[in-house]
Amino acid sequence: MAEQFEDALESLRHADEGGFDWISASQHWMSAPTVWPQPFPWISHMAARFRNVGFMTQMLVLPLHNAVDVAEQVATIDHLTRGRLILGCANGYRELELNAAGVSRKDRTSRVEEGIALMKELWSGRPVRFEGRWWNVQGGQMGYAPYQDPHPPIVLAAQSAGATRRAARIAEGVFFGPQATFAEIEPLIALYRQTAGEHGREPGIVGAGRAIMIADSREAAIRSAHAYAEKTMKMYAGWDMQERNMTSLALEGDPDEWAIIGRPEDCVEQILRAHEVGLTHITLTAYNLPAGQQERVEYVRRLAEEVVQPVKRALAPATSSA
Question: Which of 49, 129, 229, 240 pairs as cysteine with 251 (C-beta 3.0–4.6 A)?
Answer without folding.
Answer: 229
